[in-house]
Design goal:
It contains three helices and 13 strands. With about 190 residues, it is an alpha+beta fold. It is elongated. About 15% of the residues have low confidence. Keywords: Signal.
């Protein structure tokens, strides 16, 4: 049985046929060798689908369809409407909010045509003037009648608040506290 299997294997090897393969490209008529090549595009087309009420530019250009250079890293400029701020940015299903810096999102290198799904959520900017009037008046009263500067209005570079250095202000505050303490002791 082994001899028959070996004989059939040898016969099958002898009857192998050569199947020519053809390649598209330039062929050298002398040697029969072919050169196969490909063309790499210099630019790619990008399409944006935007969900959310915002303005989006790519490299400073308005629109939803763009042509960019191959392997470039386009920058999306995202601007919310007046009175709103951007709270979430999702690109192709991935939350990229933390990658947005000053309203700009840098895309990875582009090596093929692509469609980018951009979903942006915004919310109204809280109005700082909505504080109650009484708390504003209290803060104004304290700053108007306070004889000593506080650290919150000190210049961080110099430590000077209202013309008095921070060290001097602390010394004056300590003297004031000591005087108040002395007055309380005398009353007892």
């Amino acid at each position: 049985m082994k001899k028959i299997a070996a004989l059939l294997l040898c016969l099958s090897m002898l009857t192998c046929t050569v199947i020519p393969a053809f390649a598209e490209g330039e062929q050298n008529p002398t040697t029969g060798e072919a050169t196969i090549g490909t063309e790499v595009p210099e630019t790619h087309d990008l399409k944006l689908t935007i969900t959310g009420d915002v303005d989006v530019k790519v490299n400073g250009v308005d629109g939803k369809e763009f042509t960019v250079e191959r392997l470039s890293e386009p920058v999306l400029e995202i601007k919310a409407n007046d009175g709103e701020k951007i709270t979430k940015v999702v690109l192709n299903g991935e939350d990229v909010t933390d990658q947005v810096v000053d309203g700009k999102l840098k895309l990875p290198s582009v090596y093929e045509d692509g469609v980018y799904d951009l979903s942006i959520e915004t919310e109204p900017i809280s109005d700082s003037s909505s504080r109650s009037e009484s708390s504003s008046q209290k803060a104004e009263t304290v700053s108007t009648y306070s004889t000593q500067p506080n650290a919150s209005n000190a210049n961080p570079a110099t430590g000077v608040a209202g013309g008095v250095s921070l060290g001097t202000a602390v010394l004056l505050a300590a003297i004031g506290i000591a005087r108040n303490k002395g007055s309380e002791d005398e009353e007892e």
